[in-house]
Amino acid sequence: MKKARVLFISQDITPYLDETQIGKVARKLPQGIQERGKEIRTFMPKYGCINERRHQLHEVIRLSGMNLVINDVDHPLIIKVASIPTARMQVYFIDNEEYFSRKATLSDKNSGKFFDDNDERAMFFVRGVAETVKKLGWQPDIIHCHGWFTSLMPLYIKKYYQEDPLFADTKVVISVYEDEYPKALNKKFIDKLSFDGFNKKDIKLLSEESNCLNMLKQSIEYADGIIQASEKLNPELEKCIKKSGKAFLGYKNDLEYIDAFNEFYDEILEEANILS
User: What's the DSSP call for residue 86?
Assistant: First the structure.
């Protein structure tokens, strides 16, 4: 039986940024899944506040160089990579000067204001991951998304890439965390998504109101599996998960979650006749 392949995408990963719940899970989980016999790839954004010299990031020339059209404008995609030697694990970074050179992650360090182009940055990130995986010729069985910034991935895999043979059998799992979600995204977010061919039915929840909470609700609609990653969740998201009827894994503590997630992947793949 072939090794299952799991693609991890996260809005942050320890040790590249200050430690967060998402960052800790996105660091330990891929290593644990790899140790349990699966192939892995791991991606995050290359925010400008990441110290490239300290973490020994370098550009992967053979993967860089393509342009992605976001909001009808060409944006160069740059791919960087770093290794975590203690884990025998590489992390790929999605970079672009316009979107990721600023010395902050998702909000201005001084004012705390949420960046107005976070919608475009999230679009560029998930498409950059998908296009890089295509260039690698590496077909993921599972894509596991961590953080609202990755929550467009289920939509893109199920709609934008639905005719692409590389993703034909790919299942998407999302981890939902207790987080403070900024209220509003750019008012033209829907128009920008329409450039990628999505209609209002595809993005119904975002059409109602463009905000991070609705991004996550939309991701639940297109995901194949949902994991409760925090002890408590936003009540609106809890309601949305129950209503969805999707495969669901409840909260697991630090000692349980790697084995539980590994089994959850297998259940989803077996149900889809991918591992059987």
Answer: G
Q: Tell how far CA 199 is from the center of its chain.
A: 22
SS (H, E, C) 88-102: CEEEEEEECHHHHCC
Structural tokens at position 123: 């679009």
Could you read off the pLDDT of 4-51 as tens digits, one per residue?
Answer: 999 999 999 999 999 999 999 999 999 999 999 999 999 999 999 999
User: What is the sign of the dihedral through the CA atoms of 238, 242, 243 and 248?
Assistant: positive
Amino acid letter at 116? D
Alpha-carbon distance 169 to 154, whole Å?
13
pLDDT tens digit string along 183-223?
689 999 999 999 999 999 999 999 888 988 999 999 999 99
Residues 262, 193: Cα–Cα separation, whole Å: 33
* Residue in 53, 35, 42 with CA at minimum distance from that of residue 14: 42
Torsion of CA 7, 145, 54, 180, to 10 degrees: 180
Q: Which long-range contacts (CB under 8 A, 24 or more apart) does 85-91 make?
A: 87/27, 87/30, 87/31, 87/34, 88/31, 88/34, 89/30, 89/31, 89/34, 89/40, 89/42, 90/41, 90/42, 91/13, 91/16, 91/42, 91/43, 91/44
Is this model's pTM higher than 0.85 or not? yes
User: For the chain, which domains are there?
Assistant: 5-271 (3.40.50.2000)
Chain centre to alpha carbon of residue 138: 17
CB 222 within 8 A of CB 202: no
**Strands (DSSP E) along the chain, which ranges?**
5-10, 39-45, 58-59, 67-70, 73-76, 78-84, 89-95, 142-146, 171-176, 225-228, 247-249
Taking each continuous run of H as one helix and of E as one strand, the counts in the chain are 10, 11
